[in-house]
Design a protein that fits this description.
Elements (H helix, E strand, L loop, with lengths): L8 E4 L4 E3 L5 E3 L2 E3 L5 E6 L2 E2 L6 E3 L5 E3 L14 E9 L2 E4 L3 E5 L1 E2 L9 E4 L4 E4 L4 E2 L3 E6 L2 E2 L7 E4 L3 E4 L8 E8 L4 E3 L3 E6 L7 E7 L4 E4 L4 E3 L2 E5 L3 E6 L10 E4 L3 E4 L8 E8 L6 E18 L4 E4 L4 E4 L1 E5 L3 E6 L2 E2 L6 E4 L4 E4 L8 E9 L2 E12 L9 E7 L5 E6 L10 E8 L8 E5 L5 E4 L7 E10 L2 E2 L6 E4 L9 E8 L2 E7 L9 E8 L6 E7 L4 E4 L7 E10 L2 E2 L3 E6 L1 H9 L5 H42 L1 H7 L7 H14 L10 H7 L53
Parallel strand pairs: 2-11, 13-22, 24-31, 32-40
Antiparallel strand pairs: 1-4, 3-8, 5-6, 5-9, 7-8, 9-10, 9-11, 12-15, 14-19, 16-17, 16-20, 18-19, 20-21, 20-22, 23-26, 25-29, 27-30, 28-29, 30-31, 31-34, 33-38, 35-36, 35-39, 37-38, 39-40, 41-42, 42-45, 43-44, 43-46, 46-47, 46-48, 49-50, 50-53, 51-52, 51-54, 54-55, 54-56
Family: Belongs to the immunoglobulin superfamily. DCC family.
Protein name: Immunoglobulin superfamily DCC subclass member 3
Membrane topology: Single-pass membrane protein
Length: 732
């Protein structure tokens, strides 16, 4: 049987239907799978027992002999029906079929009398509710309206439009509504066509625009739009989002009604009807929203799987529809609830079963449903179990060693122990989900394991599996034990001086305070052995002000956290109140106005100083430039004034020869600064009197302009000492 490819599944499922009062009702259900298969029916979730009125046929269908909308005892055959099929591997449930009684109400909109001029547009409407939807036909003068006349347009919702009215269109109109429950007639309305066709101009006007519609895929949408005007307006359609309407399945009824056959979800949107005056941009618009719903359908139904015991099984179920469907999982026909080892993720599209066992073998169903309909798909989970596997480990015990360590011990299984190659210890915090579990491998000769690095005051669950080369044993019993608690960690403490007699203590609490936690605050003068305190503070308090202190001494402040396991280590801080007082005396408050004025004065002085410095630099540069130029211009006169006495012939000829060889036009050579220094040696010291016959300084020399050709450079030998005598000496 397990080799057969046929799973328990539905071939035909019941569908929504409308039943007629006192008439028989047949709901179909056909199943395939490995026999024997037992089929039962439920209404509104309650099993239907076989009776004279309702019983299950041999093919699995349900037959109701006389459908009753309401019985004398208050019961009704209306409701949601589903069939269930079960064999040795599990149970499946069909989709829900909604059964309603056929009805028809009275007309709530009747056609109204109308008087319209010739060439105009007439519109009649009637509305009635019923199940199934009534078919509405129109009669004129008690005869069916001629639908072959292109000027007559019948819309599905009970609307009759007549365009280009003529005198022969006058008459009495009424509508006839028909369904399997009844036939009803509306009141009559008279149409009167008056006068002749008017030629006066009339702006385009939309008499009736499109209504909002909500349909299901594959239905037909009719968006009404009827306009008048002179000249006759042109009616056009567009989508508000700018997307093209398309041409497939699109038809225009009458003079401007839009019909979309076999609608899809892509047809949803806002449609705009525009009445345009020919040859102009004058237009009137009206709009309506079309919503197309799609029943749920599977993109990826779940698949049957086989997994070894102790492993993880995953089913995936992806469905689409409009609006998006809601997914529910069933296990053998019962709603599946999440638990420690059963998890639903991704909006229930993924079912994960951890650590599967034979108890998890079942048929799992994915039910996808929305307002447009529902669908289901099933898959079977087979848990593989090898013969000769060891039994579950026995006598699992856990003992708390410390706040972070637990010792787990066990005994070997009762049977099939020869092939055991080792054990696996499964560890999980009791509050965590199954997927947070982790494992530790243990050798086959070891029957205890020390589990470390645990959290204090925390409950942990443990179970053991024995492993062979062919698979794992069943899990042992689960044991739960808690680690010991520990005292809280040291809090961080900060001291802030508020004034000369008060300080503020601020701290950050530890995350390991445990239950019934709090803080203890102590303080004292450093030269006193006795503490003031403890001041008991709850865990949500993180500041405390200590007042009425002595300014002249140093204080010690101590803070510790405590819980049900005792006091933690304390944090100590020292604080002196004297320093802030002295600092206040040494640093009196500033005179802000005075400082501001001083700052302004300093800034002004800096700016003025900068200007003076720049001016001095400019004057110095100009002085140097013009000073050098003046020296160059007066060198000829200086040469004459400093000319030496007649020297021996040999000396004179040597000097003049050198001078002639170096003569150049004024503009042909730039003078070297070294030459200028030789021409104009430094002035003699003030303690030495100038030689007789020389002027006291160059500034007293009278200069006269020299021709350019008379200007030259003369190399001179050092001057000889002046000869003694009354006459003025000549300098070389």
């Amino acid at each position: 049987d397990s080799g057969r490819s046929t799973e328990l599944a539905f071939v035909v499922e019941p569908s929504d239907d409308v039943a007629v009062q006192e008439q028989p009702l047949l709901l179909c259900c056909q199943v395939e799978g490995i026999p024997p298969i037992r089929v039962t029916w439920r209404k509104n979730g309650v099993r239907i027992p076989d009776s004279e009125n309702a019983f299950v046929l041999a093919n699995g269908s349900l037959y109701v002999s006389r459908f009753q909308r309401l019985r004398a005892d208050g019961s009704s055959d209306e409701g949601e029906y589903d069939c269930t099929a079960q064999n040795q591997y599990g149970l499946v449930v069909s989709r829900k079929a909604k059964i309603q009684a056929a009805t028809m109400s009275d007309f709530h909109i009747h056609p109204q009398n109308a008087v319209v001029e010739e060439g105009g547009v007439a519109r009649f409407q009637c509305q009635i509710h019923g199940l199934p939807e009534p078919v509405i036909l129109w009669q004129k003068n008690r005869m069916p309206v001629n639908t072959d006349n292109e000027r007559y347009t019948l819309l599905p919702k009970g609307v009759l439009q007549i365009t280009g009215l003529r005198a022969e269109d006058s008459g009495i109109f009424h509508c006839v509504a028909t369904n399997i429950a009844n036939v009803k007639f509306s009141r009559e309305a008279r149409l009167t066509v008056s006068g002749s066709h008017s030629t006066a101009y009339k702006d385009p006007m939309i008499l009736v625009g499109p209504e909002n519609l909500t349909l299901t895929v594959h239905q037909t949408a009719v968006l009404e739009c009827i306009a008048t005007g002179n000249p006759r307006p042109i009616v056009s359609w567009s989508r508000l989002d700018g997307r093209p309407i398309g041409v497939e399945g699109i038809q225009v009824l009458g003079t401007g009604n839009l019909m979309i056959s076999d609608v899809t979800v892509q047809h949803s949107g806002i449609y705009v009807c525009a009445a345009n005056k020919p040859g102009t941009r004058v237009r009137r618009t009206a709009q309506g929203r079309l919503v197309v719903q799609a029943p749920a359908e599977f993109v990826q139904p779940p698949q049957s799987i086989s997994r070894p015991a102790g492993t993880t099984a995953i089913f995936t179920c992806v469905a689409q529809g409009e609006p998006p469907p809601r997914i529910t999982w069933l296990r053998n026909g019962q709603i599946l609830q999440a638990s420690d080892h059963i998890k639903l993720k991704n909006n229930n599209s993924t079912l994960t079963i951890y650590g599967i066992s034979q108890a998890d073998e079942a048929i799992y169903q994915c039910i996808a449903e929305n307002s447009a309909g529902s669908t289901q798909a099933s898959a079977r989970l087979t848990v593989l179990w090898a013969d000769g596997l060891p039994g579950p480990p026995q006598g699992v015990k856990a003992r708390t060693v410390s706040a972070t360590t637990i010792q787990v011990s066990w005994r070997e299984p009762l049977q099939n122990t020869k092939e055991i190659i080792g054990y696996v210890l499964h560890i999980r915090r009791a509050a965590d989900p199954v997927e947070m579990e982790y494992q530790e491998a243990v050798s086959k000769s070891t029957f205890q394991q020390l589990v470390t690095d645990l959290e204090p005051s925390t409950s942990y669950s443990f179970y053991i599996k024995a492993y062979t080369s062919r698979g794992a044993s069943k899990a042992s019993d689960v044991t739960v034990v808690s680690t010991l608690g520990e005292v809280p960690a040291m809090p961080s403490l900060f001291i802030k001086v508020i004034n000369s007699t008060a300080v503020q203590a601020t701290w950050e609490p530890s995350v390991k305070l445990g239950q019934h936690e709090g803080f203890k605050l102590f303080y004292r003068k450093v030269h006193v052995s006795q503490y003031t305190g403890p001041v008991l503070l709850p865990s949500n308090v993180t500041t405390y002000n200590i007042t009425q202190l002595d300014t002249s001494v140093v204080y010690e402040v101590k803070l510790l956290a405590y819980n049900q396991h005792g006091d933690g280590n304390s944090t100590v801080r020292f604080v002196s109140l004297r320093e802030p007082v002295e600092r206040t005396v040494l640093n009196p408050p500033c005179d802000c106005m005075k400082d501001e004025q001083s700052n302004k004065t300093s800034t002004t002085g800096i700016i003025i100083g900068i200007h003076i410095g720049v001016t001095c630099i400019i004057f110095c540069v100009l002085f140097l430039m013009f000073g050098y130029r003046g020296r160059l211009l007066m060198c000829k006169n200086v040469q004459e004034q400093l000319a030496p006495a007649p020297a021996p012939r040999g000396q004179r000829s040597g000097l003049t020869g050198a001078a002639r060889r170096d003569e150049r036009p004024f503009g042909s050579k730039r003078l070297d600064l070294n030459e200028l220094e030789r021409l104009f040696p430094a002035a003699p010291s003030r303690d030495k009197a100038p030689a007789p016959g020389l002027p006291a300084s160059h500034g007293d020399t009278q200069l006269s302009p020299l021709p350019r050709e008379d200007f030259g450079v003369i190399e001179e030998e050092p001057p000889e000492p002046p000869a003694p005598g009354p006459g003025p000496a000549r300098e070389g």
